[in-house]
Amino acid sequence: MSQLSRHGSRHHPLAHLALSAERDADTTDAGAVLQALVYRPSTILRGESDDAGFLEAFHAELGFDLPIKPNHVTRWNGLAAMWLGPNEWLLSGEGELTNLSAALSGHRHALIPNGDGQQIIVLSGPRAGDILAKLCPLDFAGADLVPGRCARSILAGIGMLVVPQQDGGYHVHVARSFADYAWRILLDAGQEFGAAIADDLGQ
Prior knowledge:
By secondary structure, the protein is α+β, with helices and mostly antiparallel strands. It is built from 6 helices and 11 strands.
């Protein structure tokens, strides 16, 4: 059964595309592969990056540091913290955040759950960067977009967060309401590179 079907369409704005039925049986020779990542919790954290106590309390609770350098990502135990601004981060993954607000009490902060408000599209393969470069002004061949980094930008007129992965691919975060548009525009841009569709990912 498709991950999108098993988890329900509420969390998956691409479920109507029936991606399991559209997937390519063999993606070995594809220039790029598109996959829909199944729902994962995400939360916006706001706080003061120059407050040492705030940073220490975060580390004490979750076991890793918030990134304080622009456009950096830190990870630990299935949870990623992505720098969005001097005082804003996206926490994404299956890590336990239940006690984080209590741990940060006494320090200025806000935790804002995203619910199912975003979709992550995974773009992998040797031409993944070329596809994104057609739709986005970022330099995907430069030294700034490498694993351990992230960047907010525009994808064919809509906002996105792009996160390079260790395998050379990218996670493209878009708002739920733009997921269908983002998927179609990426697939269209990838046709000249032999883009293929793989089944949705369960992790």
